[in-house]
Amino acid sequence: MIAIIDYRAGNLTSVRLACESLGLDAQITSDPAVIQTAQHVIFPGVGAAGAAMEHLRELELIDTLRAVVDSGTPFLGICLGTQIILGHSEEDGGIDTIGLLKGDVRQFRPSDPLVKVPQIGWNTVNQKHPHPIFDGIENESEFYFVHSFHPAPEEHGCILGETEYANVTFASVMGKNNLVATQFHPEKSGRIGLRLLKNFANWNGSSC
Amino acid sequence: MLTKRIIPCLDIHEKRVTKGVKFKNNVVLGDPVEMASRYYEEGCDELVFYDITASAERRPIDIEMVAEVAHAIRIPFAVGGGISTVSDMSRVLLAGAEKVSVNSLAVANPDIIAEGARAFGAQCIVLGMDPVAVEDTTTFPSGYEITTRGFRERTGMDALEWARKAVDLGAGEIVVNSVDADGTRAGFEIPLTKLIAENVPVPVVASGGAGNAQHLVEVFEQAHADAAIIAGMIHTGEFTIPQIKADLATAGVPIRKVW
């Protein structure tokens, strides 16, 4: 079973529908017991980092997330979920976030007024390291992004894929041990996004 | 590189896709879920559905249709028409839509933009606007006045002023649908699109007038649109999305190549 973590950070319908369309058994939950017994965990989210952290604290899920990642369960962060896996975010005046990976989250500050924020749309991902989640996915394939902030991990070794926007080359896919995290939305990225989700569901969490 | 988005628009009336000129003389084209699935398979980047009579008839949007579309396609789609409250938005988003589009009802109650952005994030809230060219540039410095309710009513509001206000309130994207170009298939209204795109910090989607791939090249290159809506040119079968994308690629417009 795949647990899709519900921490009141946006709409999880499309993540669930994407999993269902692949024939995967996925359950939307905020129950720590369910999350800790799942074979795979998806940590999605859209919205603001500050509110997301508050909800995680209220639901007492931060320790659960750490325990899941420490236990070796394959773990996939998506969009805001990916950002708050890092230690600090510039959003909401600057806040500390979960810190499963070292690094911070920075705002796009385009100098060209025609470069819009949020970045909305399909952008390419340059695969920097082979990883099971890229199986069958061509390098430089496009995925769907919607975001105003981007990950800036401290350890360059955890950058699996990079994307360029607003004069910044940012980590659009990060990975360390049994954790992977995408800034884009695989659940809305058509057939290629579905392939990435399927790769995740087939992955046992061991890094290559 | 971020690619330019091609967004087929499906106007829905009584559970069927229809197409008219300037919101008049609509003819039935097909089933929304079947058409959405076909365009998804052909490689469109996003879709938008407008329940074109919900607002005028003051009735809620067809949630069942939204849920069926969400089951059928794995790309983002927006839904508009008849959305007047946060709970309307919530129903549409929970059914699986990525974004909601507000238009006439946001003119009547601009706070709905702010309330929606607070509840769901700015990226979920699209402002649709239907500007018409006017001669009175004293009252309307941009040269365009906002109309509502399917072009039936004038508002006295300047198009650029409204776009800026909507962004301040929290709109994450603006669809600029030219009343004068709508349904003509004679090309987008470049000056209008350019004016809005150059003066708001959020992405701008051009709408109204797409008739061939060259029109799309023009609106991306000259008017700096981030995305463009197409309708009649593909609904009639005259063009297909792969053909259009191939022409755009040849012209040097960045587009999504693999799907």
SS class of chain A: alpha/beta
Named CATH architecture of chain A? 3-Layer(aba) Sandwich
Q: What fold name goes in the CATH topology slot of chain B?
A: TIM Barrel
Number of helices of chain A: 6
Please, what is the oligomeric state?
Answer: heterodimer
Rg of chain B, nearest Å? 17 Å
Give a short overview.
The complex is a heterodimer of chains A (208) and B (259). With 208 residues, chain A is α/β, with parallel strands linked by helices.
What does this structure look like?
The complex is a heterodimer of chains A (208) and B (259). By secondary structure, chain A is of the alpha/beta class. Chain A has one domain (2-202): Class I glutamine amidotransferase (GATase) domain (Rossmann fold, 3-Layer(aba) Sandwich), CATH 3.40.50.880. Chain A has 6 helices and 14 strands. Chain A has helices spanning 13-21, 32-37, 49-58, 62-70, 80-85, 190-202; strands spanning 2-5, 26-29, 40-43, 75-78, 88-89, 95-96, 103-107, 119-124, 126-127, 142-147, 149-153, 159-165, 168-176, 179-182. In chain A, the strands form 3 sheets. Chain A has an 8-stranded mixed sheet with strand order 2-1-3-4-14-13-12-9. Chain A has a 4-stranded mixed sheet with strand order 6-5-7-11. A two-stranded antiparallel sheet of chain A has the order 8-10. The model of chain A has no long low-confidence stretch (mean pLDDT 96). In chain B, 34% of the residues lie in helices and 26% in strands. Chain B has one domain (5-250): TIM Barrel. Chain B has helices at residues 32-42, 63-72, 86-94, 104-108, 111-120, 159-169, 190-199, 213-221, 232-235, 241-250, and strands at residues 5-13, 16-21, 24-30, 47-51, 77-80, 99-102, 125-133, 144-148, 153-158, 173-177, 204-207, 227-230. An 8-stranded parallel barrel of chain B has the order 1-4-5-6-7-10-11-12, surrounded by 6 helices. The chains are: A alpha/beta (208), B alpha/beta (259). At the A-B interface, helix 1, strand 8, strand 10 and helix 6 of A face loops of B.
